[in-house]
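Structure ticket #2291
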Amino acid sequence: MLQALIRRATNGDRAVEATIEKKAPPPKPSVGLALGGGAARGFAHIGVLRVLAKHGIEPDIVVGTSIGAVVGACYAHGKLPEFETWARGLTARGVLSYLDVSLGGSGLIGGQRLASRLEETLGDTQIEDLPKRYACIATELGTGHEIWLTHGRAVDAARASYALPGIFTPVRLGGRWLVDGALVNPVPVSAARALGARLVIAVNLNSDLLGRGGTIASHGPNEEDERLLHEMRSRPEGLRRILSPEFLLKRQLVGSRRSPNITSVMGDAFNIMQDRVTRSRLAGDPPDVMISPRLGKLGLFEFHRAKEAIEIGAHAAERSIDDVAEAIAALT
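Resolution: structure written out below.
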């Protein structure tokens, strides 16, 4: 019987082809993308997504924290090109136009101008109506709970996720006051897995920040400290000068030769905190593939350097694309 089938096949009998069942290709594993926080460094996420798309890799699940929540929402809504165009057009002066200072509130910046700009891209789209499964991470004030925002307006969720304490005012959603999710889960791998991702690609924007986590065992005052203190005491007008409103405002906003300004203090403090939390969370729940753009020279608030950040993100993704392909093949 078998020999007859072989003879008929070699003679061009198409009936044999009909009897041979063609196996369907195995389904690809669901791919989750965890986009980390990092303020202006988050524009690197755009470059990562561009490279993944170029290689035919399309995440099914997108979870973001802080700026990762913003980029993730735009991607899940199919509006990444519009967001990229806006980001590339930012200038240092243009960034300042989005800062609606609110000295009487619970943050230096009200955030309404930036939220209005985000609404132009996302509109009133609900998270549950997005073409891709999406969630973002926020932190509840008072309790420290990690909040996964999985329904409601995408704009409101993203705004809560990037509400950096002290800079932006907290956002009230579902009866809770919420702030930046990077306080508890800077790179939300755990959320991506919980939402059904079999393979998780994570983007850590802060892996290139060197010098974090060291210990200086013995430290104290030095001669420079004593000299500066002596200079202040020896000037009769010293106390009046340092307490004047003009001097205090200058110190807060632009700093001085010997002391940092308020934005650099908050930025560095946030970097240190985020680095420690990220290491701890990723040690317990590592991603299948980690993409780590080298963004150490990019400041947290240098949003006008979007083009540079996008290119750095693209380079990092290209370096990791073989690892991504191998991980997908291993689960297929």
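Closing remark: Residues 33-210+261-330 form a domain with the Cytosolic phospholipase A2 catalytic domain fold (CATH 3.40.1090.10).
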